[in-house]
Amino acid sequence: MATSSFRRAFLQAVALGLAFAAIAWLSLVFTREVGRVAAVWPANAVLLAVLLRTRTDRDAAMRIAGAFLGNVTANFLTGDTALVALSLSAINVTEASICAFFMFRIVGRDVDLTRSRDLVAFGAVATLLAPVLCGATAAAFLLVHSGASFWATLSIWWPADALGLLIFTPALLIPSDGSGARLLARDLRFRTFGLLLLLTVVLAGVFAQSRFPLLFLVPPVL
């Protein structure tokens, strides 16, 4: 029984690592024009959503390790040196881990973003605490390693990671806890699709162009 449980956890960690690698690689490849840091970073949201539904420390550690190796792979594929690949990957998985840790400490193991308390806590942790702390760490590392501007790196890392967490974590959590069925109920269906359409249009308008700085439009819609 224990062996079967370990095998299942290992395979889940491998699958998470592959997903993280693919998402991280796509994020880096399609946003090369803005520099080393992607314009929006959804990969950490995938790890965070998984951690928020993980019940044992062993499984959490295996999934963090899988995501780390996936991120390292993506960084190597985009031409990073070993030091940069390992360092930035460690910062990314630390960011998701910080979010999960503080969410568990504030609201408990049963995280439900449809509750006001949980949503406020998530907004604070995912918007301010984790992305700022880890963004500053990454900016300091890149400053020392390659002379990149600390404030320029932080100004890209912080909103990119915060938006990734805010946009994708709830979208991944809702189907996993059964809330999705309620959103498709007859009395909510029109509002659900209307809001999804609005979010899609705004995200397309923000990220499909680089002429206007429209990132400020995303949080109100979310």
If you had to describe this structure to a student in words, what would you say it looks like?
Helix 1 packs parallel to helix 3, helix 3 runs antiparallel to helix 4 and helix 4 packs antiparallel against helix 5. It contains nine helices and no strands. Helix content is 78%, strand content 0%. By secondary structure, it is mainly alpha-helical.
Write the layout of secondary structure elements.
Elements: H1 2-29, H2 43-52, H3 57-77, H4 82-107, H5 116-146, H6 150-176, H7 179-183, H8 186-207, H9 218-221
Helix pairs in contact: 1-2, 1-3, 2-4, 2-6, 3-4, 4-5, 5-6
Gap between N and C termini? 43 Å
Global geometry: globular
Average pLDDT value?
Answer: 86
- What's the total number of strands? 0
Question: What Rg do the Cα atoms give?
Answer: 18 Å
Order of helices and strands: HHHHHHHHH
- Structural class of the helices, strands and pairings? mainly alpha
What's the tally of helices? 9
Strand content: under 5%
Summarize the biggest pleated sheet.
none
Percent range of helical residues: over 70%
**Unreliable runs:** none
Quaternary assembly: single chain
